[in-house]
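[audit] Reproducing an earlier prediction to check determinism. Same input, same settings, fresh worker. If the tokens differ from the archived copy the diff job will pick it up downstream; this log only records the rerun itself.
[audit] input (226 residues):
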Amino acid sequence: MELLQIARILLRRWWLIVIPVAVAAVVALPDLVRSAPAGAGGFSTTIRYTASQELEAIPNRDGDFQDVWLASELAVNAFTEWVRTSRFAQEIESVAMENGLEINPAALAIAADNERSIGTIAINWPNEGELATITEAAITVLQTRNQAYFPQLGGVPAEVEILDEPRIAPIPVSLPSRFGPLLQLGVALLAGLGLALLAHYLDPTLRDKRELEALGIPVISAIPRR
């Protein structure tokens, strides 16, 4: 099918193309025009820390400073796995509730990593003020309740030092949310084009001599429209 013929078909049934686009525009344009405020994607904070077992809780043994650094690295590695568990989230819920904030621990988005004996905890939450309380609760749990989960600490909390002040920052709106309205308009345009071509395929009407010639019927003459 020639491009000119396709163009004629689409122009003839332009209203089939416009209808889906108009419907999608009514739904999508308000979101496209409205700029998302800072924090529309929620808020996040990062806690960086080091940890080491209290020397008094370690049984007396011969060793050197390398053993102390190795013990610190192992503590951070163990804490990294601990903060990913549901029990850590439940501990945060308990401390946050003591500070007057009720949260669902299952809704906490917590990620953890460690590199060069430095532990990192990332927490996401929809509300900025609540995230500040949750961050304080996470630090409290990290510093005061770790001995309940690691018997090798000898019942004494490991020393946990927070390296920098956690900062809460808005999470940018995701790309699918940002370009969703444009995608909706694009899909509507494709749907309209498909409707126009389908209508032409199902329409048995012959409108010009080119369609007759395409069927192998010779055209002797034609009556002008005007």
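[audit] rerun output stored. Observation attached for the diff report: Strands lie at 43-52, 109-115, 118-125, 159-162, 169-170.
[audit] end
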